[in-house]
Amino acid sequence: xxxxxxxxxxxxxxxxxxxxxxxxxxxxxxxxxxxxxxxxxxxxxxxxxxxxxxxxxxxxxxxxxxxxxxxxxxxxxxxxxxxxxxxxxxxxxxxxxxxxxxxxxxxxxxxxxxxxxxxxxxxxxxxxxxxxxxxxxxxxxxxxxxxxxxxxxxxxxxxxxxxxxxxxxxxxxxxxxxxxxxxxxxxxxxxxxxxxxxxxxxxxxxxxxxxxxxxxxxxxxxxxxxxxxxxxxxxxxxxxxxxxxxxxxxxxxxxxxxxxxxxxxxxxxxxxxxxxxxxxxxxxxxxxxxxxxxxxxxxxxxxxxxxxxxxxxxxxxxxxxxxxxxxxxxxxxxxxxxxxxxxxxxxxxxxxxxxxxxxxxxxxxxxxxxxxxxxxxxxxxxxxxxxxxxxxxxxxxxxxxxxxxxxxxxxxxxxxxxxxxxxxxxxxxxxxxxxxxxxxxxxxxxxxxxxxxxxxxxxxxxxxxxxxxxxxxxxxxxxxxxxxxxxxxxxxxxxxxxxxxxxxxxxxxxxxxxxxxxxxxxxxxxxxxxxxxxxxxxxxxxxxxxxxxxxxxxxxxxxxxxxxxxxxxxxxxxxxxxxxxxxxxxxxxxxxxxxxxxxxxxxxxxxxxxxxxxxx
Length: 616
Ligand code: AGP
What we know:
Elements: E1 3-8, H1 13-23, E2 31-37, E3 41-47, H2 50-56, E4 67-73, E5 88-89, E6 95-103, H3 106-115, H4 125-140, H5 144-152, E7 157-165, E8 171-177, E9 182-185, E10 192-195, E11 207-210, E12 215-220, E13 226-229, E14 235-236, E15 241-242, H6 247-251, H7 258-264, H8 266-274, E16 278-279, E17 284-285, H9 288-291, H10 294-298, E18 302-307, H11 309-326, E19 330-334, H12 335-338, E20 349-355, H13 361-372, E21 376-381, H14 387-391, E22 394-397, H15 410-430, H16 435-455, H17 459-469, E23 474-479, H18 484-498, E24 501-506, E25 523-528, H19 534-545, E26 550-556, H20 561-565, E27 568-572, H21 580-598
Parallel strand pairs: 18-19, 18-20, 20-21, 21-22, 23-24, 23-25, 25-26, 26-27
Antiparallel strand pairs: 1-4, 1-10, 2-3, 2-4, 5-6, 6-7, 7-8, 8-12, 9-10, 9-11, 11-15, 12-13, 13-14, 16-17
Helix pairs in contact: 3-4, 4-5, 8-15, 8-16, 11-15, 11-18, 15-16, 16-21, 17-21, 18-21
Bound molecules: 2-deoxy-2-amino glucitol-6-phosphate.
2-deoxy-2-amino glucitol-6-phosphate binds next to helix 11.
């Protein structure tokens, strides 16, 4: 996710764009940049936050102009640095672009443009796009709007772009597919605002157009805005709506908290994470970090996963995935323990570090130790260019976008998505999974986002259950197999944001002690999907019921048996057992969220916690 903000009208563009970018920093803060046009184009950009951009513009000479746009970056292609920051300029210097999204086929387009004499300064997909638009404009001898329309019919991926042509400095072209664009309409078309959401212009106008996918807009000062279909250039009647949200609501996407917004972002986050990597109908998985190191993975003695917190839980799910799919022995270690216990490692070991922030001190120390001992280190991080990503020998990023809420949600499910792709890729290469099963899994993985989207619709039902248990002092979470780590994760979510003590346990472990805790004040959340050892989980539930425990069961849609004995049931869609963690975790995230809100806890910034634990 990145933030874009633009202005064209009669006011000074600089203060509007800069303040707009500050409001969009929740969407990304790796680097920032701005284009302004007065008598000529001036572009300033820098690694770091919007405040760093302001600092390099302090002398003021480049602040004039009543047309401009800016960008605050969440890196996906190319590490955060000055060169990779937006805006990007075409080879001729005439065209300037800012972009939020991912162009999947940028590599093929870049190779073709290089053949035609284009050169590139950055590693970004965005610089490829602006030069593709330039090449189309030249070869078709057409205006910017037409060139953008033709060029976008050649790209695959997601984009929200704003493009400027120095030769026509009274217009901005914007286009959308997969990433948001809001256009603020000033009185009598005297001014227009463009942004990733309405927060940059809410105080100037309440009239907005939200572009739909595959739509573009030609925005000119004092002229009616033109909306066109990218596919065939046909004109569309603009649908202007009156904004009702206030600034804070807009930044949270209309949700009360970033955590709830991020829970609901998971279908898109997972789609973005497998975009360009999973081509299910062709049975293809493309993970360059794995593809370029296949020998290491297929000949590895074992995989050791090091992580902390929620990322450690994702590592536990990965243990089941790698061992079941690819038959590679896996050990999962708390990074904080691994780093001090003088582990035995050889160059035949692969260490996978999982970290949303990519800055967790214990995990970073663990991989430094692993490298000293000769192991190959693979990073699964969400923040591009983070310390753990840079320290790793190779890796795959989750494309979850910034995760602001301290409680990890979309990071967990996108980590499992990357790890599932890795395990399936290796299973296919090693021949440890039949081709039919491999294809079935790819088709099913592609369906997960829509299954999560349908699951998110039962939020009211979960809120009702939360009301019943919000005063509990202790809770137990049980799961088996792939869902044992989800039981741990559900317990962590509850305790870290609602401050209720909660423990996760393998369901079969109840009789080895925890069952002594059961009474009518102990809610037990049980993951009882109709896969794996379902019947054994049912007997665990009966053991708890016979001791007056309260049962909240997560079951597969259509379950009848558990429904008979549980106090509450939450149904999830059917899927393969290996992918059930991607679904069973959703109701547990929502449950902990609602309980925490009802207990008036600070959901996004719980007491004593930090989003990234960069110290021991
Ligand atoms: C999870 O909700 C917590 N925020 C915490 O356990 C977190 O997962 C842990 O600190 C690891 O962070 P990382 O993924 O950024 O390394």
